[in-house]
Amino acid sequence: MSNLQFSFKNKSAVVTGGAQGIGFQITLSFLQAGGNVTVWDYSEAALESAKKELASFKDQVQFTQVDVTQKDSCEKAVQALAWPCDVLVNNAGITRDKSFGKMTFEDWNDVINTNLTGLFNVTKTLSEKFNTASAHKRIINISSVVGLYGNFGQTNYAAAKAGVIGMTKTLGKELGRKGFTVNAIAPGFIATAMTQAMPKETLDAMAAKVPVARLGSTSDIANAVMFLASEQASYINGAVLSVDGGLVI
Ligand SMILES: NC(=O)c1ccc[n+]([C@@H]2O[C@H](COP(=O)([O-])OP(=O)(O)OC[C@H]3O[C@@H](n4cnc5c(N)ncnc54)[C@H](O)[C@@H]3O)[C@@H](O)[C@H]2O)c1
Questions:
Q1: What pLDDT does 196 receive?
Q2: Tally of domains within the chain
Q3: Is 42 in the active site?
């Protein structure tokens, strides 16, 4: 499916985890809509591969190796920004799935540090670099349906993603007067490396549960991000948009 036709000419986005999967598609969508994008990702291999794939957009895109769990790494990346930021997409995330009985302290800490503290680190360090001239400043946080409803084997991930929703609503209240909207997207099951790590029978069972009878694509999520980032979405603030094919109806 082609992307919706929004224009981001003269606008800049920072996309965390933007070198792969959903984040890569978000990056590509902004670039195709004429925007500049700074990709923050910690994977050297993913950054290299994205750089090659996006060579035709080289004047519009900056790649920076950043670990969102590290405040210092975020601060350094902020100093290197080529453009002031109009749109921040907090997308970087990991899973360390295990039933609660088997989940280790490390599994818990890794996921909370990346999927929740990472958003604080990035949003906090970037907050001074938002484009003060921009009337439409946007923060879009990628949560998950499991943050709304829980999921077997994902105590750490569901807690982090629920935390993202609390953070989104609070920042929506605090920053609304300063020209920001802050929203979350709760994807359902999207076909990426993250879901491909799951057993095939689990994926088939997931698809069978979705009323539209398929897993989502990365474009399904990128299209929702484009809309929330657009000027047309100016009055949407503190919302959690489920993009899940009706999984949780
Ligand atoms: N795939 C799904 O079904 C699904 C469903 C709901 C929510 N999500 C969320 O969507 C987001 C993207 O998921 P995906 O499926 O594209 O995953 P992915 O693993 O394909 O990509 C995640 C990207 O984040 C980067 N990253 C991870 N930790 C990082 C860190 N500490 N610092 C910087 N970059 C880091 C990785 O290098 C990678 O490029 C995640 O927040 C995920 O939780 C995914």
A1: 79
A2: 1
A3: no
